[in-house]
Amino acid sequence: MLDSFEKELNDILVDTFRSILKVEEDTLKSTKIDLSISELHLLEAAGKDREHGRTISELAQELNITLPSVTVAINKLLKKGYVKKEKSGEDARMVYVVLTRQGSKVDHAHRYFHRQMVRQVSSEFSEDEKKILAKGISKLDAFFKEKSAEMER
């Protein structure tokens, strides 16, 4: 049986997760971008190394999804024109995913959306509240990462 704090925390976490996804999905629907939220997040991960690109393995590890799932998703993004694949000059077996101009534009817009959302949210908090919130969310993140790692073993 959950105590009152645990119930409140559960409700807040579930509601917040749903609300964030809803805002992101509604924002995406208001654009003419033919991507899902998952595809946007994959573009964001691929765009972290704009100069060299990222390997499928790096993307899978960062997003905590399987290699085959990333491969399928990247191939869809390739067909839509948001990414390209480039072989390494040093090792032809290595393939890097690089954003196209179109992919970069969408990634930039998505990052801007996140910056604006965070600015608006943080404007509601005092400096002390920001520190407490950041510490609490960091602990939540560490907890869920540890649980995820345990489940993979």
Low-confidence stretches: none
Largest sheet: 2 strands, antiparallel
- The CATH homologous superfamily of the largest domain corresponds to Winged helix-like DNA-binding domain superfamily/Winged helix DNA-binding domain
**What is the CA-atom radius of gyration, in angstroms?**
18 Å
CATH architecture of the largest domain: Orthogonal Bundle
Strand order of the largest sheet: 1-2
What average pLDDT do the residues reach? 91
Number of helical regions: 6
User: In CATH's first tier, which class of the largest domain applies?
Assistant: Mainly Alpha
Q: Specify the helix fraction band.
A: 55-70%
User: Helix/strand-derived class?
Assistant: mainly alpha
Indicate the overall shape.
globular
Output the helix-strand order.
HHHHEEHH
What is the beta-strand fraction? Answer: 5-15%
CATH fold name of the largest domain: Arc Repressor Mutant, subunit A
Count of distinct strands? 2
Number of domains: 2
Amino-to-carboxy terminus distance: 28 Å
Can I get a quick summary?
The protein has helices spanning 4-29, 37-46, 56-63, 67-80, 101-122, 127-152, and strands at residues 83-87, 95-99. It has 153 residues and is mainly alpha-helical.
